[in-house]
Specification:
312 residues, alpha/beta, four-stranded parallel beta sheet, 12 helices, 13% strand, disordered C terminus
Length: 312
Amino acid sequence: MKNKDFLSISDLTPERLRSLITQAVGMKAEGWNSLLGEKILVLMFEKPSTRTRVSFEVGMRQLGGECIYLSPEEVGLGKRESTADVARVLSRYADAIASRTFYHETLEILANNADVPVINALSNLEHPCQALADILTIYEHKQTLQGLTLAYIGDGNNTANSLLLACAMCGINFQIASPEGYEIKESILHTAQAYASAIGSEVICVKEPRAAVTNADIIYTDVWVSMGQEAETERRKKAFAGYQVDSVLLAQAKPDAMLMHPLPAHHGEEVAENIIYCQQSAVFDQAENRLHAQKALLADILGGSEIYTGYR
């Protein structure tokens, strides 16, 4: 890792990303250990969460450490107290901070003022912990990464940004179909294209979902309306009409294509009713793998240990 903060997938080198996936595979097989005994992680959330909170809390406990949760009501970053001061204070109590924020700039302020590592548990720009779990899930199902093709259908949001970067680092071709005005952020796209060019994969942006999923090994989608975008609901539903992943679209991909979604899913919107329960779905494997990927990340940041080898 370039530094001990983890705000973006691009804070990793391609080699470190592959190492984390290897470690996650090993830790998933091993279960509990005491690697992070006497370590404390503070979870500081401006947004509520199910998977992110539980996976971090369980992960720290399975590694022998402790977790302290600060709810949105308790935090009040920049309101009750300056973000910089909160970072300085928590650095005196804990060994790391994982923060789920509305704005990526808040994470940057935390990282610039904390004396301990800061982890992005979600921001409006990226969701890098989700991307780690996604790559782990793909590797488990396909037993390889290089040369696969992932079709992303929908909003070029924080999840898409991190997943694109991770895929480009791992040699996975990334084909995204988004309506006009909802494309991947240009700066993220340029960074990913540089990674892809170096490793020999492709990044392709199209408008038509069928063009993206043709011959894809993985179909991935996410909600049309994320938390904090409720005022845009009707406009977004109109823009994304025709971008639903259903059995017809899934059939355009390879016969053994896997379906992925980071959850929570809005059934009947971005995914057809019940499709995430189909045989091709890896959705709940993704959810479980948040735990194992984050354990590998925490061990790397707080334990500094590269325990597992054998990634291929």
